[in-house]
């Protein structure tokens, strides 16, 4: 049987960040509330020169070869920060990245969960069409508003994944279990550009969904916690995933409990410094695990918990392939983090309020943004993208 899964992965987040200690001080909070209680140390700042389309393009461009661009026959764009209520962000990507014009281009939405659904649709499509490839991007900007309870869990960026037969990174196993319920823990009305959230309730729902789909997964698959080398979680803030992991740790022996905790720490190295990616959060966690774990080997099974408020949860597994690290862009995130520019809290607040919104024509100065793809402004209510 042909193996289908994630062949390549790539990541992008903008060139600016704030320090969580400084944000805590500015908001009159004890820094350890953010550093330990929330589990975040830094947060990506999204300038006006970047949106979900440019971030997705910057992420995908680094991993795609000329051959990939010809062989991709579907682009699935997962986001809850879409720029248009009609036109798919995937259509912009097709042009910006020079992808085969005979590809389908679709945008998907279900809070933070849509990236997982996109990945499963890609797997199933390539299973039927093993000579073709699908580009999956999960790109988002988490916005809750200045001086709100959710401000500490903002962030943004994009994860791009190429799904193919005979993948380098991981097989996507056919063992998914999922759960959906109509719950108002987090939402963003069509007229709003910041989210509404009941934080404590949402955290409780997240844990309840994890326990429910984990239990169903065990019943349906016959597997238990001893079958997993690591568990990766959707991490809107990294402490949330740790709480979920602790709910199931008693099912493991002492040695495996310690090992699972070590792998979890590896999986949240990057999320601690980027913040919330919504649809891309789980997959940045996977990227972090693959790059920072000291013990992963080919054949290891990785458990994946995806959650999207409103609400939908899913648990499935990946099986690592013999050359899994070869599918990652070498040194990409390390370089990105090393070259980011520190931003003071007052400057961050100005940037936050300077996003492109409304119908007016506008030109945005892009000279300080070194990314390949940037947003140069808007003309006649059409966003103007630039390839630098």
Strand content: 25-35%
Mean pLDDT: 97
Give the N-to-C terminal Cα separation: 43 Å
| Bulk shape | globular
Under CATH, the topology of the largest domain can be stated as: Peroxisomal Thiolase, Chain A, domain 1
CATH superfamily annotation of the largest domain: Thiolase/Chalcone synthase
The strand count comes to 18
Structural class: alpha+beta
| Number of individual domains | 2
Which stretches are poorly predicted, pLDDT < 50 over at least 5 residues? none
CATH C-level label of the largest domain: Alpha Beta
Please give the largest β-sheet.
Answer: 10 strands, mixed
CATH architecture of the largest domain: 3-Layer(aba) Sandwich
Enzyme class: transferase
GO molecular function, one term: hydroxymethylglutaryl-CoA synthase activity
Domain Hydroxymethylglutaryl-coenzyme A synthase N-terminal: 4-165
Active site: 80 (proton donor/acceptor), 112 (acyl-thioester intermediate), 234 (proton donor/acceptor)
